[in-house]
Design goal:
The chain is α+β, with helices and mostly antiparallel strands and 210 residues long. It has one domain. It is built from 7 helices and 11 strands. The strands form 3 sheets. A 5-stranded mixed sheet has the order 2-10-4-5-11. The chain is globular.
Length: 210
């Protein structure tokens, strides 16, 4: 990072914290600093965020979605062997879209999915206050998959409806998983959420010098 950014970073260590529950501990930092910041960003260490308009997109969604408790997550993808795989859509079988509702804002569609995980969320101070007011009954609870996934995504379902960009505009808001483990673990089935630059059906001619 540039020096002006690294100067803004504070590293806090909690040796008494169970590593598997450290993401829940992070949430307490948000609660303690509620009055100091306008936005509260959670992002796991293997997630790459490149969208310079993240806050603008979140503000627009929060303002125009029409649902007070709706929050927007990005679609998460991996790059593997020339293929872009939206992993949370390809590894979930069956994939359910528009589970409860869908939203369209200025031509961009959003929907609820049965797997909302992104390893990323960003809440406004207003949304943080709403979450705190809910009582946070899912705090330190394994809601789905494991403690890390529960803290990163599923515990927020206690008071929010989580939306992602609809399959018709997947890349409107996205983050990259800096690994390819899910692409390797779940190579099949191929799906419309796997975008490949490689044409596997092409015939390859081989020329040998005699």
């Amino acid at each position: 990072m540039p020096e002006y950014q690294t100067k803004c970073i504070q590293v806090q260590e909690y040796p008494e914290c169970d590593p598997m529950f450290v993401e829940f501990r992070l949430q307490e930092e948000f609660v303690e600093k509620l009055e100091e910041f306008d936005w509260f960003l959670f992002i796991e260490d293997d997630i790459i965020l490149s969208d310079a308009f993240t806050i603008e997109k979140l503000e627009k969604f929060n303002r125009q979605s029409g649902y007070e408790n709706a929050i927007l997550y990005p679609n998460r993808y991996e790059m593997y062997q020339g293929t872009k795989r939206y992993i949370d859509l390809t590894i979930t079988q069956p994939l359910l879209i528009n589970k409860l509702s869908s939203v369209e804002i200025e031509g961009v569609k959003f929907a609820e999915f049965n797997n909302p995980h992104s390893a990323f969320y960003c809440l406004s101070s207003k949304q943080m206050k709403h979450w705190i007011k809910s009582g946070r009954l899912f705090k330190n609870q394994i809601v789905e998959v494991g403690p890390l996934e529960s803290a990163a995504t599923f515990c927020l379902l206690e008071c929010f409806s989580i939306y992602k960009p609809h399959p018709s505009n997947l890349n409107y808001f996205e983050v990259r998983h800096y690994d390819s483990k899910y692409s390797k673990l779940y190579p099949e089935p191929e799906s419309p959420y796997t975008l490949s630059a490689v044409n596997h059906s092409s015939n390859i001619a081989t020329v040998e010098n005699l």
